[in-house]
## 1
Amino acid sequence: MADRLAYTVGNGLGSDIEIALSLVGKLGVMVFTAVADARARDAKIDLFTLTHFQQQLRGALFGAANPRIDIPKILDLYMKGEVKLDELVTRTYTLDEVNQGYADLMDGKNIRGVILFD
């Protein structure tokens, strides 16, 4: 049984949570990072096991970061030369190339593309 489990599939379904949580052991934590349909309102969970195993189920977007606070901090560090971001960019695109950027992403040719607005 896992101490920690990150549920990171592309399209998260409430019906999958119970299956994933069944892999988590006593005092374990499952972190749900998948993107779910905004209208989804239900999830299936074995409440007996959740309680008796003292498991935790958490949701996460951007890790534990707060984008309103952390992105300006990262940008400030970047401007000071303390954080390297340019090296993380796979490829740049013009606004006219946005469709190509998405195609490259879907084809696995580009992981961190950036659209340049001139």
## 2
Amino acid sequence: MAIDTPRTHRSRLLPQLVKFGAVGAVGFAVNFVVFNGLLLTVFSKMHHGTIFATIIATIVAIATNWVGNRYWAFSGQRQTNTAREGVEFFIVSLAGMCIPLLCIWVSHYLLGYTSLLADNISNNVIGLALGTLFRFTFYRWWVFSPQRAKRAVEAGSAATTTTTTTAPVAAQVAKVAKVANLPGAPDRGLVGD
């Protein structure tokens, strides 16, 4: 088994970070389009429309990002229990959603910046940067943890090894049992008697 040195750890981290960034860019585009589409149409006259648009856009982006992260960015570490992984992913993502919501709330309600540009800066620049850092950290070290994936692989190979080593033993026991059940032959004593 290869030793996991800090250098090999970093060499695996960089490509994963790039893939995560690419998935995040797609999620950002989805979030941006849905957020602005909702603000310009459905929630244009609504009192808390910015908050509702942020929540809906973020949930749609979370679903998009889960698919990209599961099947591409973290594909080597994904869990076999898809439902548990999905729940963990959505928990982290929803917790990460609170960061841009807090940024929107501070900008919109505390500071009084209510323009579309101010909402986009607080949501899609400041909130996105802080939320991305939060999400990557928890995706990497909890949801798609390399240690969890390694433990799952080791458990799977241990189960396979146990099955593989016990199968020949079981076959030998079955042979002995079969031989023991043969009809008895008369005992003629020593050969040549």
